[in-house]
Design a protein that fits this description.
The protein has 20 helices and 30 strands. The protein has 716 residues and is of the alpha+beta class. It has four domains: 90 residues, Orthogonal Bundle (Rna Polymerase Sigma Factor, Chain: A); 147 residues, no CATH class; 212 residues, Immunoglobulin-like (Sandwich); 161 residues, no CATH class. The protein has a seven-stranded mixed sheet, with no helix packed on it. Strands 17-18-15-20-21 form a five-stranded antiparallel sheet, with no helix packed on it. It has a four-stranded antiparallel sheet with strand order 3-8-23-11, covered by helices on one side. The radius of gyration is 27 Å and the shape is globular. The two termini are 49 Å apart.
């Protein structure tokens, strides 16, 4: 019975809903509770209480991801029971988990706790979306499902990868090799855990349901082997102290901004400007596609700190509404028509939240979206690691100065040259069969040999990858769809260059694909076709967007991209990414060297870029035109879990003339609803307490910054 049918039984007040829930998810919920309590009796009581809570909550609730929704209830009930009856002989699993999380966030109690947990959960969700599939899996298996992840990580063919990673496992933990006492310092002292670890554990329980569901797709026993393991343990470090966390993972920014720098440029920032762990990028000036437009401009930029209300009517002081207005003047003796480009820093997935708009002479105009390339780079974990496994986002305003200065980035974004289309051979896998009742993680492996110099293989829908250096055998594998946990979406191997000489199919008990664990009864239909890479990517783009529209919860925030991006544009961006840093580039980065399209195409939607709103405006000779951009701007910030000492601090940068073709004659800035914030740092000149909410800026000064904290709310 599928989830929709089970939920319908609850709505019909049919007692069969409990039976159906227990039959489908009882074992999963019991294991989840046992991982926390280490008591089968207590776990059974928590599971029964989960059914009772579900019966009382549905209706009116209609969960979009039933398994994750039930699991969240079980986690909270188990934590409550652990708190009520904690002894040394009971709850050892929870003791370990909280010990690892104990040092992750400051101990703070108060009425804002629930709201803070929600914000923290959003941060963790955003971070996980920017990690590799392996990292997401490991983190969630450990801190959402409560499992010991050592077996997942270190079984199978890891050899040289473990050595290259610079990480090693200690019982129940992962710690950096260079620091022998790092386990205690990073993961806590064990035994006596306060509210802060419990808060973090509950916050992790609130992460995006789509991520929880994705982690459940992989069997408990083993994780399929991918080419690289260097980043496999990194995500466990993210919540465990600023220094280690942001070096290992590349940081948060939702996905990986480095606290210590992006590898692009870290020099030249204003002396008093904070370098934030999550850098949101600056407010950039209007520019044009015209080389020498001969147009002057007066600019006024306003930060509006009105609290923002989310769909659940929760108001928070987070971010600012930006109004960036321009009066364009034409001192020439001829009328001028300009192609305007208004730049905004963000990911494609952020566009609905950013909600940008342009007006020209007071009238709203439809602007074309022009998408620049990924704004950052790639790097290792520090400490001599020269790999390119991790995303390295710009970490401060000077990185964008380096990126945009000279206009090459803008010209590349507005150019029309598309990558050359490439002929490919596609192997499509459908009609899956396996004894999934006996082997819940039944796996099919595809093994072949290929000349790396003549053949490049890309994959989509495969969870596992292995390469035997001795024999040259390459293995791709996937968990056989069972119609419930894993959908029937087809799998593809896309061959660029010389075709495969042949391949072998073999079924296994699980994703380890280990000798001695072969099974019969695993089969599929393989269809070979010849087409072009562009045609394949366009087909995948449409499939992904269709899935996002049908099941937005699975993709989380990424699903918003389907509402703003045509599949053709998505296809073109994926193709360009492959040629820039994927396997079709001259020097592919380690992050994508397995050829896995799933991850690359997800990150096409998530990584930070400069996005341009493009429109035209006529400026008559001797006359003016007014152009105004409005959008919501996320702040730069440090994470509550980092212990950085800049709790609740939000940072904003403004560039006066960077990459603008306009000649600025005057610039001013203002702050609106300043009563909602405390200005803690700036070089702008605001003084709201004395009525100074608007100031003149010097266009010759490249950078202004503003740092604020929300005014604390009065509590009863």
């Amino acid at each position: 019975m599928d989830d929709t049918q089970i939920i319908d039984l609850y709505w019909d007040r049919d007692q069969g809903a409990i039976t159906a829930t227990a039959g489908k998810y009882g074992s999963f919920l019991h294991a989840l509770s046992w991982n926390i309590l280490r008591s089968h009796h207590d776990a059974e009581e928590c599971v029964n209480d989960t059914y009772f809570r579900a019966w009382n909550a549905i209706p009116p609730e209609r969960p979009s991801a039933l398994r994750a929704w039930l699991g969240r209830i079980t986690r909270n009930l188990s934590l409550d029971r652990w708190k009520a009856g904690r002894t040394q002989s009971r709850g050892a699993g929870m003791e370990t988990l909280l010990g690892e999380l104990d040092e992750c966030i400051p101990d703070h109690r108060g009425p804002e706790q629930a709201a803070e947990e929600r914000v923290l959960a959003e941060c963790v969700s955003a971070f996980l979306r920017g990690q590799t599939a392996d990292n997401r899996y490991i983190f969630l298996r450990r801190y959402w499902y409560g499992e010991d992840i050592g077996y997942h990580l270190y079984q199978g063919r890891q050899g040289r990868h473990r050595k290259a990673s610079g990480l090693r496992r200690e019982p129940g933990k992962i710690c950096p090799v260079p620091n022998e006492k790092g386990a205690a310092g990073i993961f806590g002292k064990g035994g006596d855990h306060g509210m802060k670890a419990e808060r973090l554990f509950r916050a992790i329980g609130l992460v995006d349901e789509g991520l929880i569901e994705a982690a459940a797709e992989t069997p408990v026993k083993k994780r399929p082997v991918w080419r690289r393991y260097a980043a496999a343990a990194a995500c466990l470090m993210v919540l465990c102290g600023a220094g280690a966390a942001y070096l290992v993972t590349g940081g948060f920014r939702g996905y990986g901004a480095s606290a210590g720098g992006s590898g692009i440029n870290n020099a030249g920032s204003a002396a008093d400007t904070a370098v934030f762990m999550s850098y949101a990028g600056p407010v950039l000036p209007l520019t044009t596609a015209d080389e020498n437009p001969g147009v002057t401009a007066e600019r006024h930029t306003d930060w509006d700190f009105t609290p923002r209300t989310d769909p659940e009517e929760y108001a928070s002081q987070w971010g600012a509404a930006i109004t960036d207005g321009y009066i364009l003047g034409n001192p020439t003796d001829t009328d001028v028509t300009l192609t305007l480009l208004y730049p905004i820093v963000g990911g494609i997935k952020d566009l609905l939240s950013i909600d940008p708009g342009l007006t020209v002479n007071g009238e709203t105009v439809g602007a074309e979206l022009v998408i620049g390339d990924y704004a950052g780079g790639f790097g290792g974990t520090g400490g001599g690691d020269t790999s390119t496994l991790n995303l390295r986002y710009p970490s401060q305003w000077t990185d964008y100065q380096t990126l945009l200065d000279g206009g090459d980035y803008r010209e590349a974004a507005t150019g029309t040259q598309a990558p050359a289309d490439i002929p490919v051979t596609v192997y499509t896998f459908t009609d899956f069969k396996a004894p999934t009742e006996q082997y819940q993680a039944a796996t099919q492996a595809v093994t072949f040999t290929a000349d790396e110099a003549r053949t490049t293989v890309l994959s989509y829908g495969f969870e596992g990858y292995g390469w035997d250096e001795r024999t040259g055998e390459i293995t791709y594998s996937y968990f056989v769809p069972d119609g419930q946990r894993r959908g029937e979406t087809c799998k593809r191997l896309i061959v660029v260059g010389d075709d495969l000489d042949g391949y072998a199919l073999q079924g296994y008990q699980d994703g380890g694909c280990d000798p001695g664990e072969e099974i019969d009864g695993v089969s599929c239909t393989v269809t070979r076709s010849e087409t072009t890479l562009r045609a394949v990517l366009l087909e995948l783009s449409r499939e992904i967007f269709d899935t996002m529209e049908e099941d937005p919860g699975y993709y989380g925030w990424l699903s918003e991209a389907a509402e703003v991006l045509p599949p053709e544009t998505y296809c073109a961006l994926a193709e360009r990414a492959l040629e820039q840093y994927g396997l079709l580039s001259d020097k592919p980065v380690d992050r994508y060297d397995s050829g896995r399209l799933d991850e690359l195409m997800d990150e096409v939607l998530s990584v930070d870029r400069v996005l341009y709103l493009k429109t035209e405006v006529a400026v008559p000779t001797g006359g003016t035109a007014e152009v105004t951009a409005q959008y919501w701007k996320a702040p730069s910030f440090d994470f509550a879990c980092s212990g950085s000492g800049r709790r609740n601090l939000q940072g904003y940068d403004l560039m006066t003339t960077l990459d603008s073709t306009l000649t600025f004659t005057a610039q001013t800035a203002s702050v609106t609803h300043a009563e909602n914030v405390q200005i803690t740092g700036q070089n702008v000149g605001f003084d709201p307490e004395n009525g100074v909410t608007e100031v003149k800026l010097d266009p010759n000064q490249p950078h202004y910054y503003l740092e604020i904290q929300p005014v604390p709310k009065e509590t009863d």
